[in-house]
Amino acid sequence: MDCMATLDSDFLLKGLNDAQSEAVSAPLQNMLIVAGAGTGKTRVLVSRVSWLLKVENIPARNILTVTFTNKAAAEMRQRIGELVGEDVLHALWSCTFHSLCLRLLRAYSSRAGLSPDFSILDTEGQKLLIKRIEKDLGIDVKEYKPSQLASAISTLKEKGLRAEDFLKKKNSRSELQNVLGRVYPIYEESCKQEDLVDFSELLLKTLEMLRVHDELRDLLQRRFKEILVDEFQDTNVMQYELLKLLSGKETHVLAVGDDDQSIYGWRGADFANMQRFGKEFSQVKTIALQKNYRSSQNILDIANVLISANDNRLIQKELHGVHGQGYRVEFLHNSSGYFEAVNIGNMIASMIKRGVRARDIAVLYRNNSLSAAIESELSNRGIPYAVYGGLKFFDRAEIQDALAYLRILLNDADDTALLRIINVPSRKLGPKVVENLRRIAQDRKCSAMQAIALVCEYGSQKGAPKELASLAKKLVAFGDLIKKLKSLKEHSSSLSELVKGVIEESGLYEYYRLKDEKEQRGEYDNQRHLNLEQLVNNAVSFEAENDGQSTEDDFEPTENANNSKDSLLNFISSVSLAAGTELSESGLQESVPDTVNLMTIHSSKGLEFRYVFIVGFDKGVLPSSISESRGDISEERRLAYVGITRAVEQLCLSYSDQRLFFGKMEVTGPSQFLQEVAGHYAGSSGKPFEVMRA
Ligand code: ATP
Ligand code: MG
User: Fold this and answer.
1) How far apart are CA 669 and CA 269, in angstroms?
2) Which pLDDT tens digit goes with each residue over 135-178?
3) CB within 8 Å of 133: residues ≥ 6 apart
4) 553 an active-site residue?
């Protein structure tokens, strides 16, 4: 090691404990870190990347990190940048599984059988497309909800089953499966025709591409010399296979995870992948981290008691903290969901009054529906808050509308986007017009956009049939608008200018501004026209972040070198990925720094907050009644464990005697989990809850 490297290595190991240092400075090899919450797994991963760069002198382009959310990926980049300097970041691939697949498919689209500028179909778009197909097939959309079919299709794809495979299975079918058998093939075909790729398709296509193109797989295996994966317990079978396909003889993988925090089993994640990794990758060194650096011992004791009741753990671990016993955990008893919100509102208000920063407070819940009461309580008190997950920024109708306008500027064939906005704002192009247009498109085997051009051209000629002429009359203005927007795209000097122009020229901004005004949406009501403004801000940040980045990547000659320069395409891809993946957060909230954080426990994974409230710690809510009726509450237990271990200083577990479900008041009471951990407190003394308590 030369002198500089010694300096770097001392710097990178500073403050780490022995086990952490061992992992960070280990020789190049496969490694598995299995350790409990808050033991510094993510910190080790970040330091290891820095070590590889600075001490092992591995070029950034040979390193790939994979994390679970876009936010985590961005944070990782930032933390690595702080340790080793920003200049290496442009060549480092710091991705989520989704964004990794997107990058690979864009670079090698023809091998994947895609056009170079395919669009991503996010969850909202997926539902719209399925609704359209159901209508064409005469299927009742109320009985077979598009969202239900969408998730059924995703589940099939996540198992690697295409429509053809599904139809081949000759098992007896439920009604829903029969419907699925009719919808899925058309869905697949429409996606192909409209050049759309949905989320599960990203992964499936990438796998299919890498399985058959040996030379591409070799190329990538030679490129990715070091792969580091955080939250490994939540990888599914296909993600695991992707990792295997990407790692060649000379690749080393570091997998970091905690089986006790596996909370995506319902979506096919399997923490047994950690065991599999240990067996299937060569000479894996396993390292355990023991100390928890996050929480006080009272919080950890509760987490330990709760998780110890699971009998399907890979490793029995106990969390031991370094910060002393700390405050006792508070159990907050409320008479109803409404009073729960009032009580917590009171506590938060008085904490803020005493100088606690709003951003240090988090309110976590099992289901999104539990946030409404808390939201309205906080907004009545004028306490700023941000909801993560839930209806995310990019899933909001107004943002989806804006994105649909942008998408049709990129892809003429994107009927799903076109039909979404053809009558938003209202242009008197109702269902009848749309129906006619689609019929023409089907007859002519062309896209809806081409059909509009045809109708406008022939319908405005003298002697055109009456019906066609009247259709043309209705569509001419819309056709002109699209032309105008296209010319805007040609002449805009920047991405943000284009986004702003499209939002304004399309009439979308004014439409939502008037709507907000009419509905008297208040300051905290998430005004829709302001969300549109925020989208422009996002475009500005996107420009700044990507300035010169993507083009400098010296990836081996890709098929589509020029396309990576198309900033609109990249922008839309990146926001489409941020939408719908449930785990991602909006750009909006990040720009409002001092707000109370509201999110599901699922979205809180990997994060930490000084003060944590978990609401709805009720019977039938956590564990959920569905899991109870299934007779397996182990994943719910892990979920509660994840929630509890987010807290640094103080934790409040709140439950209620009764709660409204679908407008009906039902008796609930404390969760069995609460009863299990409460016993732990009998007779214990400790500081009472003076900080949280009013
Ligand atoms: P989770 O399982 O929730 O993802 P984790 O194991 O990834 O947790 P980190 O988020 O890396 O844990 O670390 C938890 C906290 O402990 C962070 O605030 C981190 O900065 C701090 N920490 C980790 N290691 C040390 C250390 N050696 N000394 C002091 N603080 C540490
Ligand atoms: Mg972590």
Assistant:
1) 31
2) 999 999 999 999 999 999 998 998 889 999 998 886 767 888 99
3) 183, 186, 187, 190
4) no
377-418 tens-digit pLDDT: 998 898 988 887 655 667 778 888 999 999 999 888 999 999
Question: Residues 8, 20, 39, 42: which is the catalytic one?
Answer: 42
Provide CB contacts within 8 A for 161, sequence distance 6+. Answer: none
For ligand 1, what atom is nearest to the CA of residue 607?
3
Ligand nearest the Cα of residue 258 is 1
**From CA 667, how far away is CA 620, in angstroms rounded?**
10
Cα distance from N-terminal residue to C-terminal residue, the chain: 57
Q: Which residues surround ligand 2, an ion (CB under 5 A)?
A: 41-42, 606
Which pair of tokens denotes residue 664?
Answer: 């009906």
39 within ligand 1 shell (Cβ under 6 A):
yes
- For residues 257 and 45, the answer to whether their CB atoms sit within 8 Å is no
- Only one residue has tokens 């066609």, namely 468
Decide: 560 in ligand 1 pocket, CB within 6 A. no
Three-state DSSP at 291 gives strand
**pTM attached to this predicted model:** 0.83
Atom 29 of ligand 1, residue of closest alpha carbon: 293
Is 67 among the residues known to form the active site?
no
CA dist., res. 606 & res. 611, Å (int): 15
Which member of 8, 122, 134, 230 is catalytic?
Answer: 230
- Percentage with pLDDT > 70 across the chain: 89
CB of 16 within 6 A of ligand 1: the answer is yes
The reply to whether 41 belongs to the active site is yes
pLDDT of residue 34: 93
Residue 470 CA to ligand 1 centre (angstroms): 66
CA-CA distance, 110 to 118, in Å (whole number)?
A: 11
CA distances from 401 to 221, 529, 532 (A): 40, 12, 10
Q: pLDDT tens digit string along 320-331?
A: 999 999 988 999
Supply the angle between the helices 97-107 and 237-246 in degrees, to the nearest 10: 50
Q: What distance in angstroms lies between residue 40's CA and the mean position of ligand 1's atoms?
A: 3
Beta 385-387 vs 596-600: how paired, if at all?
parallel
Output the CA 595–ligand 2 centroid distance in Å.
Answer: 22
Q: Between the CA of residue 110 and those of 105, 113, 318, 473, what are the distances in Å?
A: 8, 5, 50, 40
Question: How far apart are the C-alpha atoms of 120 and 106, rounded to whole Å?
Answer: 11
Residue 675: active-site member = no
Nearest CA to 330 among 639, 5, 611, 110? 611
